[in-house]
Amino acid sequence: MRAAGGFTLLELLVALALFSVLSMMTFISIQTMLDSRQQTRQEAERLAAVQMAFARLELDLQQARGRGIRDEYGNRRPAVYYGLNPDEGLSLTRGGRAIQVPGRSGTSLQRLRYRLEDGELLRETWPVLDRGPRLEPFRQRLLEGVEALEIRFLDDQGDWHPRWPPDSASPAEQWPPEGRGEGEEAPPASFPPELLPIGVEIWLELTDWGRIRRLIPISRGEG
């Protein structure tokens, strides 16, 4: 017999065991919920980063302008350039940038480049179009975890090209081979430097989400 109002040792052990099991189940449930929320937050942040990178690309390409430049070696570069060397990336001249000078208003042109480096998508901009040999670009890291960047260009005839200017571009001026940087690839032998595509197809291959495609029209505006 047990004393009135008391518990036997066995009953206490059973109660403690049940309490331990319930506590463990509660802990696991809470931990699972926290892990799920953390994963959801990380996925949301990743989605926002990818969307912002594509939005930046789209804005720059839609503002593309037909103005070629001279690079740091004195070579002529077309308004939009994408060659067979993936390390060079995509270069273009864009407009629509506000001039931030007191007493002056309007827009100015800007030279920029997109390229991959160590799994990151970079956006590089120069303060002038025709740059000198020691002028370094401003670099902005847009997106991490990028394995590959692939680009195609749509011309007026509805044909797609893996590089720009395309090999079939009509002659305008000869590319000067002298002074080209070591290891630098030359574009097609002749091309109109102001030639712009009417559309650009961009593929980003991400380490976590695989391949993502975006098709961007180009307005060919002025300014």
The CATH architecture can be given as: Roll
Average pLDDT across residues? 81
List the strand order in the largest sheet. 3-4-5-6-7
Regions with little confidence, pLDDT below 50 for 5+ residues: 168-184
CATH topology, which one? Answer: Pili subunits
Protein name: Type II secretion system protein J
Keywords: Cell inner membrane, Cell membrane, Membrane, Methylation, Transmembrane, Transmembrane helix
Organism: Desulfurivibrio alkaliphilus (strain DSM 19089 / UNIQEM U267 / AHT2)
Subcellular location: Cell inner membrane
Overview of this protein structure:
Mean pLDDT is 81; it is low at 168-184. The chain is 24% helix and 31% strand. It has one helix and 13 strands. It is α+β, with helices and mostly antiparallel strands and 223 residues long. Strand 3 (80-81) and strand 4 form a beta hairpin. It has a single domain, classed as GSPII I/J protein-like (Pili subunits). It is a single-pass membrane protein.
Keywords:
223 residues, alpha+beta, Pili subunits, five-stranded antiparallel beta sheet, 1 helix, 13 strands, 24% helix, 31% strand
